[in-house]
Amino acid sequence: MVSLSPWKSHPLSALVRSRPFVPLTKFLAQSSSQSSAQSKLLTESLIEPDRVTAAAQLQSTNHSPATEPIITINSRISSWLTPIAYVLGALLLPTYFRMRLMGQENLPREGAVILAPTHRARWDSLLVPYAVGRFVTGRDLRFMVSANEMTGLQGWLIRRLGGFPVNPCHPAIASLRYGVEVLQNQEMLVIYPEGNIFRDQQLRSLKPGLARLALQAESSKPGLGIKVVPIHLEYDQPFPRLGCKVNITIGEPLEVSAYRQGSVKQNAQRLTEDLEAALRQIGDRGYDVNY
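Structure for 1-acyl-sn-glycerol-3-phosphate acyltransferase, as requested:
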């Protein structure tokens, strides 16, 4: 007769003894490798169209504190700073620039909206709210901003004017989820689909991240009805100065719900291609910036 200790007779004992022993150092290495792999997988899903889809990664619930660092997104629309910024913009921008606005009738007054402007100067982030924001649609804008711009006083201001950081090369899961939440709350989100500032006025191939984020948000909340609005900005100077002429042309919205017939990769590619075509079309209408 074999006498068993209380632990050996416990039901969990067999389960523990059946699992292979893994040294602590090897376990930590495996955890680190899994964390890096998950981060890389999600990044590639939104940046590289040939890798796994963003939908599967953003919907995953298998993240834990051990495999994903907790990042707090500190962004809001300040109740006192935002009105001041809009008033200053309305007073100063028409004085600094000679502007021509076209297509404001295409702006949705409600619902989830992604504004997709071309990116030609740092002034873009002031001109877009002037052209489509509070004084035009009655709505405030949220901005997806490159993380290296979110430092010091500038970062403090951006966070209180609706901006939140994202690393365009390695976007954190928290930033992407926050972007989805902004759309689920039926707000206006500004994303520059070219990714960087290009001062030669030539439209670059668009990054697939905008389309993938839009499709993920649309699939996460049926009937959300996200619209993507192309906006073409054109200056008559590569580095705008006082008196610079600028055209801001707003195109007709693209309905994200119309891009859900194929795979996520195929839908994102079609939406990206159609958005690029729309930006080229409104940019090639022959408007003369030298008016």
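The beta strands are 98-102, 113-117, 141-146, 163-166, 188-190, 227-235, 245-250, 254-255.
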